[in-house]
Amino acid sequence: MAQLRGVAYVEKIGETNMTTYYQLHDSPTGELLLLSNGEALTALHMTAGKYVPATSTDWVRDERLPIFAQTRRELDAYFLGTLRSFTMPLAPQGTDFQKRAWIALSKIPYGETRSYGQQAHLIGQPSAVRAIGAANGKNPIGIIVPCHRVIGANGALTGYAGGLHNKEFLLKLEGIL
Fold first, then answer.
1. pLDDT tens-digit profile of 78-127?
2. Do residues 75 and 143 lie in contact, with contact meaning Cβ atoms separated by under 8 Å?
3. What's the pLDDT at 79?
4. pLDDT of residue 2
C-alpha cells in the first residue's frame, strides 16, 4: 500500500529549498498532473477537476524521475485492472487533520466503500463528518489516496474533485458499481 510520510526537503544555510517536479500523464479519467519533491509523490490531480494548482515557473518538468516512472507504471496497471494497491512513497501537504483523514482513506481496500461517517469514526472524531468531507475534497493525491471510495451514508455518490463521472468510472473499474 502506498504510504504517507513526511515531506523531505533540503535545508541550505538558513533557507529551505524544495524543488517541485511535475509531469503530465494521460489516463482514462483524462490528463493527470503528477507532482513530486524528487523522492515521493506529493500530488496527483485530474487537470479538468477542482483544486488543480496553477503551473509555476519554479516547477521543473522531469519525466525521467524514478517516482514518476513508478507512478505511471502503477497507474497504468490500475486502469488495466491488474493492480489493486499502490506502493510508491507519498508526501501530501496538509493540516494534521487532513493527513489523518487521508491516512484513513488509504486504508479503504480496493473494491470497498466507506461513508463519511465511517471515516470520521476511523480517525476517532465521529462528529467530524463535514470536516472529513472537506478534507477529502482537498486530497492532493487523487486515485492513489482513494477518496473516490467514500460515498454518502445513503449509498449515493457525492462530491469528487475530479468530477462525479470520474468517481463513477473508478468505482465501476473496482467492481463496486
1. 999 999 999 999 999 999 999 999 999 999 999 999 999 999 999 999 99
2. yes
3. 98
4. 57
Alpha-carbon span 160 to 81, nearest angstrom: 21
C-alpha cell recorded at residue 49? 477537476
φ and ψ at 75, to 5 degrees? -65, -45
Nine-digit cell string for 115 = 461513508
Neighbouring C-alpha atoms within 13 Å toward the C-beta of 60: 11
Find out whether 45 and 32 touch, Cβ atoms under 8 Å.
Answer: yes
DSSP assignment of the chain equals --EE-PPP-EEETTEEE-PPEEEEE--TTS-EEEEESSSSEEEEEETTSSSPPPPPTT-EE-TT-HHHHHHHHHHHHHHHT---S--SEE-----HHHHHHHHHHHTSPTT--EEHHHHHHHTT-TT-HHHHHHHHHT-SBTTTS-GGGEE-TTS-----TT-HHHHHHHHHHTT--
Q: Across-strand partners of 11? A: 16
State the angle between helix axes of 96-106 and 129-137 in degrees (0 to 180), rounded to the nearest 10: 80
Please give the positions annotated as active site.
Answer: 147
